[in-house]
Amino acid sequence: QVQLVQSGAEVKKPGASVKVSCEASGYTFTGYYVHWVRQAPGQGLEWMGWIDPSSGGTDYAQNFQGRVTMTRDTSLSTAYMELSRLRSDDTAVYYCARDGPSYTALTYWGQGSLVTVSS
Amino acid sequence: DVQMTQSPSSLSASIGDRVTISCRASQSISKYLNWYQQKPGKAPKLLIYATSSLQSGVPSRFSGSGSGTDFALTITSLQPEDFATYYCQQSYIAPRTFGQGTKVEIK
């Protein structure tokens, strides 16, 4: 079965960077884009971007351009999302997710990784 | 970017009620509209994809409709486990924007 398992919670200081991992299993990792979505406390869902694990190609939402980097390690079937120059309003749960087998909807989700930015 | 606007932002309903949530896109997105359910502390769960296709395992009391810019999620006969927040999302073009969410509460 498809599983996406994310790294644990992190506490970071303003200005630092954080790197969240998402290990995929149960399917061919290079066959599907990995998307990243975040949710600030009590707020809605915000799509951050995606990475194509096959080519390494990425597409980032404008709000995160210049601060986010999505990478992957195909040997580990793992995708990474790094966010730099952290601010307090980056405190959120970060999710990785994957589309369905034949449709563009986020069907499989990781469990979420809480990133807290605090001095 | 395509802006997605949901209405209402919240609603109160009773068990057995029929509930409809609307979602409007700022431009045509064809049929590329998805609905998710989220409960506190959990990852979102896909309910409906491509406007009206029911995700495997989702009860048939959930249905989706619409096209172009106006879409709706309907829950017939609301059940206790349906109290949650619902989000629409367009997958027509990047960025794959979400609506702001609709919280369904118990009356």
How would you describe this protein?
The complex is a heterodimer of chains A (119) and B (107). The radius of gyration of chain A is 14 Å and the shape is globular. In chain A, strand 4 (34-39) and strand 5 (45-51) form a beta hairpin. Chain A has strands at 3-6, 10-12, 18-25, 34-39, 45-51, 58-60, 68-73, 78-83, 92-99, 106-109, 113-117. Chain A is 0% helix and 50% strand. In chain B, a hairpin with a 2-residue loop joins strand 7 and strand 8. Chain B has strands at residues 4-7, 10-13, 19-25, 33-38, 45-49, 53-54, 62-67, 70-75, 85-90, 102-106. Chain B contains no helices and ten strands. The chains are: A mainly beta (119), B mainly beta (107). The interface between A and B is medium-sized, with 24 and 24 residues.
Give the SSE layout.
The complex is a heterodimer of chains A (119) and B (107).
Chain A: E1 3-6, E2 10-12, E3 18-25, E4 34-39, E5 45-51, E6 58-60, E7 68-73, E8 78-83, E9 92-99, E10 106-109, E11 113-117
Parallel strand pairs in A: 2-11
Antiparallel strand pairs in A: 1-3, 3-8, 4-5, 4-9, 5-6, 7-8, 9-10, 9-11
Chain B: E1 4-7, E2 10-13, E3 19-25, E4 33-38, E5 45-49, E6 53-54, E7 62-67, E8 70-75, E9 85-90, E10 102-106
Parallel strand pairs in B: 2-10
Antiparallel strand pairs in B: 1-3, 3-8, 4-5, 4-9, 5-6, 7-8, 9-10
Number of helices of chain B: 0
Q: Give Rg of chain A in angstroms.
A: 14 Å
State the total count of DSSP E strands of chain A: 11
Strand content of chain A: over 45%
Q: Which chain pair has the greatest contact?
A: A-B, 24 and 24 residues
SSE string of chain A, helices as H and strands as E: EEEEEEEEEEE
Radius of gyration of chain B: 13 Å
Q: Helical residue percent of chain B?
A: under 10%
How many alpha or pi helices of chain A?
0
Which structural class is indicated by helix and strand composition of chain A? mainly beta
Poorly predicted runs of chain A: none
| Average pLDDT number of chain B | 97
What would you call the shape of chain A? globular
Strand content of chain B: over 45%
Element order of chain B: H for helix, E for strand: EEEEEEEEEE
Main beta-sheet annotation of chain A? 7 strands, mixed
Q: How far do the termini of chain B sit from each other?
A: 36 Å
Helix-strand category of chain B? mainly beta
Which residues of chain B form runs of ≥5 with pLDDT under 50? none
